[in-house]
Amino acid sequence: MQERTWKAVVVPEATSDGAGVRLRRSIATRSLDQLDPFFLFDQFGSENPDDYIAGFPMHPHRGIETITYMLDGSVTHRDSLGNAGTIGTGDVQWMTAGRGILHEEMPHLGPKRLDGFQIWVNLPRKLKMTPPRYQDVAAARIPEVALPGGGKVRVIAGDVKGTAGAVREIHADPTYLDVVLPAGETFEQPIPRGHTGLLYVYQGEVALGGAAANRGQVIPSPRLAILTDGDVVRVHAASPARFLLLSAQPLHEPYVRWGPFVMNTREEIAQALDELRAGTFIRP
Ligand code: FE
């Protein structure tokens, strides 16, 4: 059993996207284009509606999955295939864009604030043109595992001590956990060897490793820690902490990214743009 530690710690970059949503981006930046198969990692969070209310008006996606997880506030989703719904506090939407959707994602003016994450996971060549699919999971359907010492884990995807996550049948065989850990507690999670492992600290501070003497330096929030390979990760809360733990199977395929499309070749990107112009991008 080899323990995973971190090989790099990424400081999220302040940026804006959509029609002017301010966010913190850790993947899909000039310094970190992607971490196979993760192609974007955004945290949004503000109590100022001007930072988010313009939202993400109609835009296309092809060749990826987009995963939206709301901590606070809500986002209404509507797409060109007639799907519509609200991703509320604690809910997850795992959208497999596949061959293509056009959608809008519009935050609501909440009573307090808007907080959440959006992550993109690349699709393998054989699934790039799969029909679009949604897994919308309401907060109450996301299993929660209590940890000794008062911590808890929301299991969005993957498996924690025999509790299976709410999102299933995803090619990347992902783990997506939201962990609350009181100061001084340790959370241990197996991660398949060879899978890309990420830890995003969004509250408090953590250290990785077993006994105190072997722990690396403390990682503050907000930070994205890129994990080394191994079989298991042990996360120690240096202060009361909240973090996402993510892993997924890398594709090891060539890729070309153009905005909201990730394909294998330039020709496939050109084809997506041609279809958008011709109005044939969406296939009923
Ligand atoms: Fe989108």
Topology (SSEs and partners):
Elements: E1 3-4, E2 6-10, E3 13-17, E4 21-27, E5 38-46, E6 56-61, E7 64-72, E8 75-79, E9 84-87, E10 92-96, E11 101-107, E12 114-122, E13 133-137, E14 144-146, E15 152-157, E16 159-160, E17 163-164, E18 175-181, E19 186-190, E20 196-203, E21 206-208, E22 223-227, E23 232-237, E24 241-248, E25 256-258, E26 261-263, H1 266-278
The chain binds fe (iii) ion.
How would you characterize this protein structure?
This protein is mainly β and 284 residues long. The chain has one domain: Jelly Rolls (Sandwich), CATH 2.60.120. It is 5% helix and 49% strand. It has 1 helix and 26 strands. The strands form 6 sheets. A 7-stranded antiparallel beta sheet has the order 2-22-20-24-18-15-14, with no helix packed on it. The radius of gyration is 18 Å and the shape is globular. The model has no long low-confidence stretch (mean pLDDT 95). Fe (iii) ion (FE) binds next to strand 6 and strand 11.
Please outline the major beta sheet.
7 strands, antiparallel
- Beta strand count: 26
SSE class: mainly beta
Spans of at least 5 consecutive residues with low confidence: none
Whole-number mean pLDDT: 95
What is the annotated CATH architecture?
Sandwich
Per CATH, what is the topology? Answer: Jelly Rolls
Anisotropy-based shape = globular
Count of separate DSSP helical elements: 1
User: What is the N-to-C succession of helices and strands?
Assistant: EEEEEEEEEEEEEEEEEEEEEEEEEEH
CATH superfamily: Jelly Rolls
The ligands bound in this entry are:
fe (iii) ion
N→C terminal distance: 48 Å
Cα-atom Rg, whole angstroms? Answer: 18 Å
Query: In percent, how much strand structure appears in the residues?
Result: over 45%
Q: Using the coordinates above, name the CATH class.
A: Mainly Beta
Q: Numbering strands along the chain, what is their spatial order in the largest sheet?
A: 2-22-20-24-18-15-14
